[in-house]
Each structure stands twice: as C-alpha cells, then as structure tokens.
What we know:
Layout: H1 2-10, H2 14-56, E1 60-61, H3 69-72, E2 76-83, E3 89-91, E4 101-110, E5 116-125, E6 142-151, E7 168-169, H4 174-177, E8 185-192, H5 216-239, H6 242-245
Parallel strand pairs: 1-2, 3-7, 5-8
Antiparallel strand pairs: 2-4, 2-6, 3-4, 4-5, 6-8
Helix pairs in contact: 2-5
Amino acid sequence: MPRYYLRKMMHRPVRDYVLSVLAVAFVILTTSLGFWQLRRLAQRRAQNAEVIARLAEPPIPVRQLTHDSAALHYRRVTLHGAYDYAHEIKIADRTRLGSPGINIVTPLHIAGTDTAVLVNRGWVYAPDGLTADLSRWREGDSVNFTGYARPLFRALPGSPVLPGRPDSFRWLDLSALKSRVPYPLYPFVIVLEGSTAANGNIPPRVPPPPLDEGPHRSYAIQWFSFAIIAVVGMYFFLRVPPSERFPNER
C-alpha cells in the first residue's frame, strides 16, 4: 500500500506540488493573521479594562499627576485656576457626528504655580475644519472642573502648526507650543468632562473613546475561514486525478 501511494504521488504533475506549497504557505499566513487579530483583541480588552478602572477612580488635583505618560493616561483630575484665552489653540479637522470642526484647547494657569496645563474644552463646528469664532465660547475666568488626562499627541510627519495660522495645530507638540505660549506647560492635556451637547457658551465636551472590542474578532474569524477554505479546497482538488482535471493533457 505505501508503495502504491508513493508511485501515485511520483506521477503527479509538477503543478500539483507547486499548488500544494502555495496552499500551505497561504494557510500559514492566514492562520498567523488570525492569531494576530486575537492577540490584538486581548490587548484591546486589557486597554478597555484599564481605561474603565482609571475613569472610575476618584479625581486627584492636577498638580499631583505624574508626568509618566503610561500612568497618567485617562487619570481623572480636578482643575482650579484661570483660563488664558489670549493664548488658546485650535486643533483642526476634528469631526463630530460626521460634521467638521475643531477642538478648543485653552491654557489654564494652575493656582499656586507658574506652570499652566492645556485644557481641551470641547468641540465646535467649523465648516472648513479650521475657522471658528472662539470668543463666543469663553466660559469665564475662574475654573473648577474635572477631566481626564491624555499625553500630548504623538508626532506625525510634517509641521504640527498650520502654515500662516500660529494658533491652529494639527496635533499638540510641546516644542512647537513654546513659541505660542509664554510660560511652562505640563506635558499632557486635560479633556474636560461634562455634557456632549452645547449649553450657552459651553462647547460640547469631547467624550472618551468608545470602549468596544473593535473588528478584531470578525477579522480573526475571516482569516481562519480563509485557511479552512484553502485546506478543504486543496484536499478535494488533489483527490481528483490529474487526467480528469486536465483532460487535454492526456
């Protein structure tokens, strides 16, 4: 019996071996991608659990917040001080419910210190994703709010400041902010908590990111399905004798 199958395999055309190797490589690739998506799903779940836990903790004064970007992520804080509207910043091209707009970021002088913290006060509509009248969104000078911390945005290619608009940023970069703000800044931004609907001169607050699992599970199922289809398809393909698959080559 083994000799029979050995002779049978030896008489198979070269294309069968090539297709078999390609099928095996495809299965290895798609299976690896499936397990990669499962690992990303586990990471997403762990990150969501960490965010939920940190947002549930009681807020601490912003001056007690560590500068460690990993430790401060989504840590809730209390803010007491005065806004500096003269040096507030726009973060351009921020969408909300499909509408273009900007985020308003205003420096806040922390009481008892010469250092200010950037405060993301919320989103306002801007038809071009850039131009908006910020004077109508001044909430007062004295501040007594809570929010959660986020590290300054990761650097991207190009300049963070839009050409010809020194108050408009693509992302918040601490080095670039030094030319805009004439005093020291904490290396993070505080996103204010509150209603996501406009209320008088208070802009809609920026909500925390959705804590869902993303598409990783469905992507994993998709990759594993491709692997199964390749295995089953190749099995039935090889079961058919070459003479029946390619009758013109008899």
